[in-house]
Amino acid sequence: QVQLVESGGGLVQAGGSLTLSCAGSGRTFSNYAMGWFRQAPGKEREFVAAISRNGGRTDITDFVKGRFTISRDVAKNTVYLRMNSLRLEDTAVYYCAADSTRTWSVSRTAGAYDYWGQGTQVTVSS
């Protein structure tokens, strides 16, 4: 089992940047593919980005591609989401999640992830 704690959210002006962190507990953090999802008020949770166990494969959804980057530091048991050129529509609660099943690939489906963090709020203002 792994516990996930997100941090780094906050209030930022449009065009600004934030880096979200997701710290995982337990020795087997490197056995999980990791994903970031977000949920805006009144909307369903949606996939943002994912990274494979060894970091060799990443997937970024089209509406943030070129602006967001996902990475992981295995030694620090941490996954990052670097967000640049933030837009008003990026406002949401951002969640990280761990997938114990996939070895080399990643999934965009929330149901594929076994463990979730509590979320961190990102608010983009004009």
Produce the secondary structure layout.
Elements: E1 4-7, E2 10-13, E3 18-24, E4 33-39, E5 46-51, E6 58-60, E7 68-73, E8 78-83, E9 92-99, E10 115-116, E11 120-125
Parallel strand pairs: 2-11
Antiparallel strand pairs: 1-3, 3-8, 4-5, 4-9, 5-6, 7-8, 9-10, 9-11
Keywords:
single chain; mainly beta
Question: Quick summary of this structure?
Answer:
By secondary structure, the chain is mostly beta strands.
SSE pattern? EEEEEEEEEEE
Form type: globular
Oligomerization state: single chain
Number of continuous helical runs: 0
Secondary-structure-based class equals mainly beta
| Main beta-sheet strand count, sense and barrel state | 7 strands, mixed
End-to-end distance: 40 Å
Which segments are poorly predicted (pLDDT under 50) over 5 or more consecutive residues?
none
Give the rounded overall mean pLDDT: 95
- State the helical fraction: under 10%
Rg over alpha carbons: 13 Å
Proportion of β residues? over 45%
How many β strands by DSSP? 11
Describe the structure.
- With 126 residues, the chain is mainly β.
- Helices cover 0% and strands 47% of the residues.
- It is built from no helices and eleven strands.
- It has strands at 4-7, 10-13, 18-24, 33-39, 46-51, 58-60, 68-73, 78-83, 92-99, 115-116, 120-125.
- Strands 2, 4, 5, 6, 9, 10 and 11 form a seven-stranded mixed beta sheet that branches.
- It is globular and about 40 Å long.
- The mean pLDDT is 95.
